[in-house]
Amino acid sequence: MKRIVSAILSTVLLISTFAGCQAKTSTSDTNAAANVSGAATDGVVLNVGMMPFTVNVPAQYAYEKGWFKDAGLNVKFVMFQNGTPMNESLSAGQLDIGVAGTAAVFSMANDISTLVYESNTAGGMGLYVRKDSPIAKIKGQLKDNPDVLGSKDTVKGIKVLGSLGTVSQYVTINYAQKFGLKETDIEQVSMEFAQALQAFKTGEGDAISVPPPFSFQAEAAGAVRAISFEQASGMKMKDGILVRKSVLKDRKADVVKFIQVYEKACEALAKDKDERHTFSMKFFKDNGLVYTDKMMDDEISVRDYITKEDYKQSGYTLGDSYMLLANFFADAGKIEKDLLPNVPKNFDASVIEEAFGVKINTAK
């Protein structure tokens, strides 16, 4: 247990999360959690961890529509501000399901939870420089990524603000490697994303590597994106839904129902962008995030909800982006190497198959 807790606590915020924040509620704080949902009236309670991000909007939407109750599920939401305390609550048995971001990879590595569904693409992450940076003046140096800015000479020696041990670091290191540089050829300064953005605005550092909404705020302040996560990795990052292993074993029928209802909400929000915009603005505001209409439009443009129709497309592989991150964090010492095989072991496509009659592959 010490090993598990140590590994979880060593993590910092990932692509959809804010560093340094504490959980907004606990599983015993039902009054505080009530602003998220409350509980339905039938059946055994299904405790669901939530955060104020894109991945969680469909769950809240479905709750307010009464769809969970219609399916016979007694759902109670518990709100957190990032993935670390959610992982701890899953480990402690206080949560049954976690509607999670990329921090989910640590829960899988520690053999606590299983990834059963991927909910949305998690775009908008990138490395940014100022408009007058030498990096911003050069484009087309990479044949496989001609839109990436910079060159070997302009990137070497730069100071990048971001959060070490996160996707921020992954993008930074891969950016340097694209130009044949080593990690030691650049300087990385670790700080919380909000702090990093403020420091960058005041002139500190040469670049900043951040996720939304900080990436949108950086662009609004005049920064330009040198490379995106997608350009750095060759794939789209995805958020997903975790289920504690014992819950998946003992209450799989409830998990399947939860996914069916959640996917119904994803479909509705994907079809009606105006509804998604309005509902997301309210959901974020109710939970401490203030977005402008422009920021929300940007969010929607880079984060698509995944539906059963996407799963029907040939070649869909559950967990591929999580596997990429797991390998990166193992190399960075954030996941112990002997725990790495637990990650692909905890990709389970059977819930999707039972929910939608679709067979998909899982990453290895």
How would you describe this protein?
The chain is α/β, with parallel strands linked by helices. 42% of the residues lie in helices and 16% in strands. The protein is built from 19 helices and 12 strands. The strands form 3 sheets. A 5-stranded mixed β-sheet has the order 2-1-3-10-4, sandwiched between helices. Helix 8 links the parallel strand 6 (159-162) and strand 7 (187-190). Helix 3 (57-65) crosses helix 13 and helix 14 crosses helix 15 (293-302). The longest helix has 20 residues, at 252-271. 50% of the residues are buried.
Fold blueprint:
Elements: H1 2-9, H2 30-33, E1 45-50, H3 57-65, H4 67-70, E2 74-79, H5 83-91, E3 97-100, H6 104-109, E4 113-121, E5 126-129, H7 152-155, E6 159-162, H8 167-178, E7 187-190, H9 193-201, E8 207-210, H10 214-220, E9 224-228, H11 229-233, E10 238-244, H12 245-250, H13 252-271, H14 273-286, H15 293-302, H16 308-311, E11 317-318, H17 320-331, H18 342-345, H19 350-356, E12 361-362
Parallel strand pairs: 1-2, 1-3, 6-7, 6-8, 11-12
Antiparallel strand pairs: 3-10, 4-10, 5-8, 5-9
Helix pairs in contact: 1-5, 3-13, 13-19, 14-15
